[in-house]
Design a protein that fits this description.
alpha/beta; nine-stranded mixed beta sheet
Length: about 575
């Protein structure tokens, strides 16, 4: 029988939530009831779970149906879905605050294999997850420890006591800690059944960022899917002294967890981390990247190819990073192996990449073909500024701005708004076409003009430029959706203002190296687009990343573009991806 689909399981969880509401049960009781009934059927020798139980809820058909689903899955998959059911049935604000998004078993098994390949010994080393959630890592680690110890001839009792001593976890949510503890007992059920010994696993409800801040260099292996969300100023303030080394602006919670994980490792210890990809390139992760390269060897980065196949209810590009704590600070060139990882956990190696230790974005190949592009582009020192352009983001935020707005130029004239200028929206940008702003919005109720109060307002764009959509995804044909702005906009209105989802790349002089129409073609070239994908870890096209975008030598590009060669071919020749004499 084929295992149930993700969609069918999510439907069962929805039915569970409805049943729990009907019975007046809350999240812990729902999960505790399902867990007890599942254990009664599959793990009868275990003590009853410590979570609350409802006889009324236990009689619901939705509960029986979900337990049938759990029985059809592997133990690790079933544990993942029960943890996820808890996250999906509790209060949404609580889930968001604790960032309850768990790692599926396919990826945890891939990471376990990666750690094994790096020389981690599951039979002798200590392991910890400082954000253990529903034991997504603790349970598979316990299973691997069990296998390694049985191979070494450990008795069942000695095996249980070894795991009890060498496996640690913590989480803010008490229910998840109780769930993790019971999952570990289920993972080691055979030994518990033989001996009658119930281990007291070291899984505690606590704030790891504060509790372990001073416990440096004590753990052999850290495995963690840290919570990720922007931190508030209030919660960040007490953590500043301990994490000042990596804090920039308004940091993401997972940046502090990565720092903690590295600090907890003994010299030579390993960490395996499941995180968003934003730390690879984001502007405000620069200090974290420096910290990582000064304190750890980046052994392997796995880029998950399916961003919809990792976390439930979240579209998030994901990186699987394995690192090793350094014996001393490193100041030379750093190379790391990179793989593409499928949602099923299969790794395909795409080669090595060089990681700058200056805090700049890390260029990480997303495919095998990217490796050659990165090698050639890394030799270039030329950026947008060398072409005579600078980057800025549109300053207009439509739902916050209170200045007068107008749907058409006729309205501007009728209201005698002499300082009104046209507004450019992201949807106005079509690749390969000049941006020409119509005098009236083509979208009902959407304004086209804004009265800035002055024709010399700093937000006004008056120089020749190209514009691009600020929010794109890796699934689109182009990450850089770019077009040149028609001179008619400047001739007619004197300039425009960009909405904040528009990136503006404007000329810094009257004679840039390339006019906007040709710059748009350069930025649309395949090699340039692929390089940008390799330095961008988020859906936003940021000014920070654009300013680091490697471009061909302008003089070589102009020479290659002579005699009718297309911009695509000229870029490849100037980068050295094809010989100068290659066919056009």
């Amino acid at each position: 029988m084929a295992p149930p689909s993700k969609l069918s399981i999510k439907r069962r969880i929805t039915a569970l939530r409805v049943a729990a509401e009907r019975c007046g049960s809350h999240g812990p009781t729902l999960i505790g009831t399902v867990l007890r009934l599942w254990c009664n059927a599959e793990f009868p020798a275990l003590p009853k779970p410590s979570l609350p139980y409802s006889k009324t809820l236990a009689r619901e058909t939705a509960v029986d149906a979900f337990i049938v689903i759990l029985k059809q899955l592997t133990f690790l998959d079933a544990a993942y879905w029960l943890s996820s059911a808890y996250a999906m049935t509790i209060d949404a604000s609580h889930r968001k605050q604790l960032a309850m998004y768990f790692t599926p078993a396919s990826l945890t098994e891939g990471l376990m294999d990666d750690l094994d390949a790096q020389g981690v010994n599951f039979g002798s080393q200590s392991f910890m997850d400082p954000a253990c959630g529903g034991a997504a890592f603790l349970a598979p680690i316990a299973l691997r420890m069990r296998t390694a110890l049985k191979r070494r001839g450990y008795t069942s009792l000695k095996l249980l006591k070894h795991v009890e001593k060498h496996l640690h976890g913590s989480d803010l949510d008490k229910t998840l800690c109780a769930l993790s503890n019971h999952f570990l007992c289920m993972a080691l059920y055979e030994e518990i059944q033989k001996t009658g010994y119930i281990p007291s696993f070291k899984i505690h409800s606590r704030d790891s960022l504060t509790h372990f801040a001073s416990a440096a260099e004590t753990i052999d292996v850290i495995v963690c899917n840290p919570p990720y969300r922007k931190m508030t100023a209030k919660e960040l303030e007490p953590l500043r002294p301990a994490y000042a080394e990596v804090i920039e602006a308004q940091p993401n919670l997972y940046a502090l967890f990565i720092t903690l994980c590295v600090r907890l490792l003994r010299i030579g210890g390993h960490a395996a981390l499941v995180t968003p990809t934003s730390f690879l390139s984001g502007q405000y992760f620069g200090r974290l990247r420096k910290f990582l390269l000064h304190n750890a060897e980046i052994r392997h980065i796995g880029m998950v190819s399916d961003r919809q196949g990792v976390f439930i209810d979240v579209e998030q590009e994901t990186a699987l990073t394995v690192l090793r704590r350094r014996t001393e600070n490193h100041r030379g060139r750093v190379r790391a192996d990179v793989s593409i990882v499928s949602a099923s956990g299969h790794y395909t190696n795409v080669g090595k990449c060089i990681l700058p230790n200056s805090g700049a974005a890390w260029p990480i190949p997303r495919s095998v073909d990217d490796v050659s592009i990165l090698k050639k582009a890394a030799l270039s020192r030329f950026r947008l500024s060398d072409y005579g352009y600078r980057v800025r983001i549109g300053a207009y935020v439509w739902n916050r701005d209170r200045r007068p707005k107008f749907e058409s130029f006729s309205d501007v004239r009728r209201r005698k708004a002499h300082t009104a200028i046209p507004l450019m929206w992201s949807r106005d940008i079509t690749p390969g076409k000049l941006v020409r702003l119509e005098s009236k919005s083509s979208f009902d109720g959407e304004h086209r003009f804004v009265d800035l109060g002055s024709k010399s307002h700093p937000s006004l764009v008056t120089s020749p430029c190209v514009v691009m959509q600020r929010v794109t995804s890796k699934d689109q044909r182009h990450r850089l959706v770019v077009a040149a702005v028609s001179p008619s906009i400047f001739d007619t209105y004197g300039g425009f203002i960009g909405e904040n989802h528009v990136v503006i790349i404007e000329a810094t002089s009257n004679r840039p190296t390339l006019p906007p129409t040709r710059l748009a073609k350069l930025l649309s070239a395949h090699a340039v687009d692929r390089y940008f994908r390799c330095i961008s870890g988020a859906t936003n096209v940021s000014a920070f990343e654009l300013n680091q975008l490697a471009l061909p030598d302008p003089q070589m590009l102009l020479e290659a573009a002579m005699n009718g060669r297309s911009m695509e071919d000229a870029v490849n020749v100037a980068f050295g991806l094809t010989p100068k004499g290659a066919a056009r």
